Structures
1.
Amino acid sequence: MSKTNGKLKKKQSNFDYSLLFLILFLLCFGLVMLYSTSSYDAMLSGLPADYYLKKQIFATCIGLGVMAFAAAVDYRLWQRFALIAYFVAIVLIFLVLTPLGIERNGARRWIGIGESLSFQPAEFAKLAVIVFLAMIVSKMGKEALSTFRGVATLLVLASVIAGLIAVVTDNLSSAIIILGIAFLMLFVASPKSRYFIIMGVVGVMAIAAFILLGDSFRMGRIEVWLHPEESPLEGAYQVLQGLYAIGSGGLTGKGLGNSVQKLGFVPEAQNDYIFTIICEELGMFGGICVILLFACMIWRFMVIANNAPDLFGSMLVVGIMAHIAIQVVLNIAVVTNSIPNTGVTLPFISYGGTSILFLLAEMGLALSVSLRIRSK
């Protein structure tokens, strides 16, 4: 009997309930803050107060189904589709240029599906790059990444997707996120850290050149970042109103639902600038709590990646961790005017159906890896 119990213990899985709790809590918190932030803007547009909330709940429910499916399926299965996903991402990016493409706020970044549904190829591309690089690294082995050529080749493959997103869809922020994901995944996998100093410098120079040689809109964002109180550009207004929201919240905030800046002062506050409304209504305390929740999530990713059954699973979770970490840091840095505006949403909290769908798909993959970790 004791031998049988011993065998059962050895086969016991380590499903990460802590990560699952963090995901569900952030989703619920995000829905509450989304309604608080967007209700006035919806009514101002002649829509029901819960318009954005209902759309987000719909996307979240689909996303939870996708997450449950991805968690139940063995993550190793997706290695077979990694190369296909890479090329599908490229095709989807170019579809933006066809009649299926949809233009919003002067940017053509969406594909129309039916009359009321839209899809942003950049969100799929992030997941595709994570799965693709995890597959390549697991096939090549860490030894192959000990050479500059091996690391550079994989970065170039990721840069193809990033470059197309930046040029075809004019979405520099998603391109930066994809490059950041690839950089961190390969940095973790490669035993040679000195290569990344060179590549990091080259990457920063390339992004700087893209901004400087691009249109005046990107240079305008630099001007807004440096002198928001003096700049006549439209983006300066959003930056200043966001800072007013953060500052007026104080330590404990004005109370849930009591934000003043969301009443038309912060444009589309339910998107990129939702963190400013969190700070206004819940104060510095609420903002720090949100950051700590994401820190706990990243810590759980590190635990899963460290104990993953194989290299593919480990790299998969490292890529997901890199995605969440980069996007959270960029979003909070933007709304506090620490860096120029990049149009990055706050994961699980900002409004966006495509974003929440693929974020939950990534969470399902991470939970799938944790489910297949066996206790010793």
Note: The chain has 13 helices and three strands.
2.
Amino acid sequence: MKCPYCGFGESKVIDSRPTDESNSIRRRRECLKCQKRFTTYEKLEAISLVVIKKDQSRQPYNRGKILKGIITACEKRPISLAQMEKVADDIESELYQSMTREFDSTLIGEKVMEKLKKLDEVAYVRFASVYRSFDDIDTFMAELQGLMNDR
């Protein structure tokens, strides 16, 4: 495992423990060169998932894309990275627990919006505005009105 700070290839494990969901092991490591500490996660390699895009092309599932979208939507909001990672983890768990291995990208986008709506309404609106490609202010206002009615 290379140190993310100095790139040195050797580190020692300081602490290991299962994550809350018990689907991975969290390891605290210390670089043997610069002595900085960092965290790694060890996960069981699972069956690969496939995402069916709007143009019907297929791509391997990439948790990083989901997390990137969540982070962008939550920018400058009072939401910790741990909360954002939990949203991505929850979605990934739901996908792996289902009986299928192929998912429409729209289903994944809807799951992200559902989780963000509960976490932070502003982040939800930001994500929805990009995901749903609001064409005009009326569509945007209709989404906001729906959010207000749900309150």
Note: The chain has a mean pLDDT of 91.
3.
Amino acid sequence: MNKIKPLLNNLIIATKNDGKLQEMIVSLSDIIPSILTHKNVNWDTPEETGQSFAENSIIKARHVAITTGFPALADDSGLCIEKLNDAPNIFSARLAEEHQGFDGAIAQLNKELKGQASRAKFISVLCLYLPDGTHYEFSGTLYGNIKFPPQGPTIGYESIFIPDGYDTALSALAPSIRGKIHYRTLAIEKFKAFIKNDFYQ
């Protein structure tokens, strides 16, 4: 007999990054009646010991779901640069921490690339984890090129990333365009389609 899946009326967004949190709330508010955050339910942040975006996404979502008893949705994402053997990859945020922010991290990448362009991709992996251990994964990938100097505001590494089909950095695109093609948006749209069409079947 199939398990009866719980209604996602109280889905926790498993991040304490306020920028990412607001972005995901706006994207999900049309299908999730009640979204909970770290401001409603407290949890300690788990150590991300995975070797991939998918593994780290599962670690975060599982920890929050088991700790709180609510379904949890976590994201792990980052930038992979071809000429740097896909670095910084899962260490994208850590590189920024080590260089006092993303401006410092971008300067370091410029140094490593010697100012040269490179193919690159942004990857986002979402994990929906239910308290019973059932979990689902959804990924989004945006391809493009690294180009210096940075353009537009510093939003992660998006000021040096030119998406395929555009001649402007991702962070400098109009919000309506950026929001439509964003790597996390691509993963969220897959999640929303799954909830609408498959989850309760």
Note: The mean pLDDT is 93.
